[in-house]
Amino acid sequence: MKEKFLDISQRAQEAQFSPIRKFVPYLEEVKKKGIKVFELHIGQPDLPTPKEILKEIRNFREKIIAYTPSDGILKVRAAWQEYYKSVGINLDLSEIIVTIGGSEAILFTFAAISNPGEEIIVFEPFYTNYNGYTSVAGIKLVPLRTLAKTGFHLPNQKEIEKKITSRTKGILICNPNNPTGTVYSKKELKMIINIAKKYNLFILSDEVYREFVYDGEKHYSIMDFPKARARAIILDSVSKRFSACGVRIGCLVSKNKKVIEAATKFAQARLSSPMVEQLAVIPLLKNSQKYTRKIALEYKKRRDTVFEALKKIPGVKCLKPKGAFYITVKLPIKDSDHFAKWLLTEFSFQGKTVMVAPASGFYATAGLGKDEIRIAFVLSSLKLKEAMNILKIALKEYKKNF
Ligand SMILES: Cc1ncc(COP(=O)(O)O)c(C=O)c1O
Q1: N or C: fewer beta carbons within 10 Å in the chain?
Q2: Nearest in space to 312 (alpha carbons), one of 389, 214, 399
Q3: Ligand 1 near 360 CB (within 6 A)
Q4: Does the reported pTM lie above 0.90?
């Protein structure tokens, strides 16, 4: 008997493959051929995870790796509280929920504040995996474009207000921004708060790159503004801050009791965050700046290397990022998806190539970002220099053929 066709959900059909990860199968193939790939597509830092974290993992002495409280082990939440205090944010322990990476904080927040079909305003280009979680939560991201010519800063209040409908539940910002590196000013944050108050919206503030700001820029957290506190939700993570992406520890912070209560229900459904890794990040959370100051200087050096090299490539346009460790780059090509794949499948120079993330997936508006890529400067300056030279040679060759 012929099997009946089993249909997957509409939301699954509409969900995207992450533009950061979708070319990984080609990466595996190209590596098998012995070609060296400079991996600039993903925000996976090459900096060693601090030895304090590794030591905690190696010295783990409990007899059982057990479930932990759903909102996080108390002393881990206390360590987060201490961390926030060190960056000028005073929180009650009840305002912090430990999550499985910043990713889970995003999902919990989307699900906590919006019903299926409701909307969240976001500024594009934006961190592409917000798309993945809107698919899971069944909600819609409403994009507003930011432009290179204005430093990818926010549109004005009028433009933002035009996007607000009866379905809008919140405004999502990522500050410092992935993928543009933009750091929002006090004035911009105040504008967002004004709009949120006027239309009774939540403000979702993804601050996972908080410490990575350059050139004397100051980072303002959404929690720095007392007027925002009732409606603000911070989405946070140790992944980049402590070069510890694989420990999968993040947190959701809110002074809104209903948000915390809702996120707690979701946290209880998934039982617990990983025990060993939660405990492992305590020492760094309690003394973060010793580490983050050092690595922020390193990323600034890398940013300079990449920016200076890109500036010299004919037809390439980009802005010097003020924060995070990404740069959005406009290339003299028509289809960066095709280019990114071509780099892996058809091109190499002296046995080497580069892997980049095509930027179209960082936009929600169809057709945007097709001539842009995102580069993560997560390798040493020496390697980045070589990678940028390879990119320059690749572009020249690509333009001859396409
Ligand atoms: C802006 C932003 N938010 C959240 C995350 C999620 O990170 P994680 O789940 O590793 O904490 C990332 C990861 O790249 C990111 O760039």
Answers
A1: N
A2: 389
A3: no
A4: yes
